[in-house]
Task: structure prediction
Amino acid sequence: MCQGPEAPRAQCIQDLRGSPSRKVGVAGYRETGRQELQAVLQAAGRAAGERPRVTLVPALSLSISMNGTVVACPGGCQAIMDTGTSLVIGPLSPVLNILKSINARTTSTGEYIVSCEAVQSLPDIVFTINGIAYPVPASAYIRREQTGICFSNVDIDTSGSSSLWVLGDVFLRLYFTVFDRANNRIGLAPAVA
Result:
């Protein structure tokens, strides 16, 4: 199956060829991966270059750890991947655990910042999805603005609607992601820089 950080993209493409309806979406590619995107779209029976519009996928079983310690979802929680969301968004208490782990402090506008000098030493946030670990380095979950301020790309769900996590572009930029709606599955492999 097309899953895991070590999954070859060729296997992801092969998995798609066997899909009966071939209705899939792809996210997480980088500009240098355009040929891979075209290959996946062609394998899925779509015109090369057509940009998929799929944004939400079924809930996934998620656990989140840093430095080998679970900081959120110790018993598992639900998550979705959303190509229309820029950040990683989660419930108040678990997100505060993550922000505390990286020594983030809040600004007067409610955003969280960290010392830019500390970014190199911050731990990966490891999202374990359905038993497979997907690390996200600080260089992805912290963004440095032109002003020299470093902001967290992990944010609190202010809607208070649920304990659901949303894995947006912060996560999806790192992993070549195939949304196979016909088979209700997602394929993940490291994105190529």
About this structure: The first strand starts at residue 24 and ends at 27. The CA atoms of residues 125 and 144 lie 18 Å apart. The chain has two domains: 9-54+173-190, 60-171.
